[in-house]
Design goal:
Blueprint lengths: L2 H13 L3 H23 L2 H17 L10 H24 L6 H15 L1 H20 L3 H12 L4 H8 L3 H22 L4
Helix pairs in contact: 1-2, 2-3, 2-4, 3-4, 4-5, 6-9, 7-9, 8-9
């Protein structure tokens, strides 16, 4: 099953209050989220608390989830934000204790790493590079039509007139390009 299809089924199950689907989501993401959290928190109890809160929030806010929500990104963002909250709390308790300065420094470094907007920019830039690579891997005619459509903003009819092709041919190339780009991106960012 493709990631997109599984994501859609998970979202539908959540919105319908399906506890079995919720359990599948927990089983699928728990260890990934836990490992992410413990990497920054370095404390098993705090990591467990974060993950418990993340899944509780997911369940409580399931009706507000947009149909385009990507669960993987949503859950990692919630985990990241909760880690930041825990680190803030821990930093406050350690800030003035001389015997805990090393721990305070480590927490400060983790906080800075998680809070840095550069991470978001890196993720966006990496995704854009992958999309560009996928576009460049298209057959020449398909790539030319896709670029005219998506990057230069021409309508299908304008492309067909400019390249002296039938409208159906232009539409077929655009469909093929989107399908191929999606497949490449799905493969690159597969959760499994």
């Amino acid at each position: 099953m493709s990631i997109i299809k599984r994501n859609k089924e998970y979202l539908e199950g959540l919105k319908n209050g399906n506890e079995k689907v919720f359990r599948l989501i927990i089983d699928h993401w728990y260890s990934k989220l836990f490992n992410f959290a413990i990497g920054f928190l370095n404390n098993e109890e705090n990591a467990k608390e974060v993950i418990q809160d993340v899944f509780l929030l997911l369940w409580e806010h399931r009706f507000q989830l947009n149909e385009n929500t990507v669960l993987n990104a949503y859950l990692f963002t919630l985990t990241r934000n909760h880690c930041i909250d825990i680190i803030r709390r821990e930093k406050l308790t350690l800030q003035f204790r001389k015997d805990k300065q090393d721990e305070y420094k480590r927490l400060s470094e983790s906080y800075n790493a998680l809070s840095d907007k550069i991470l978001d920019n890196i993720f966006v830039e990496e995704l854009q590079n992958e999309i560009n690579n996928a576009i460049n891997s298209l057959p020449n005619q398909c790539k030319k039509i896709f670029i005219l459509s998506r990057q230069e903003g021409l309508k299908n009819r304008e492309i067909s007139e400019k390249l002296n092709l039938s409208l159906k041919t232009v539409e077929a190339h655009i469909t093929k390009a989107i399908r191929q780009i999606r497949a490449i991106i799905e493969q690159k960012y597969s959760e499994d």
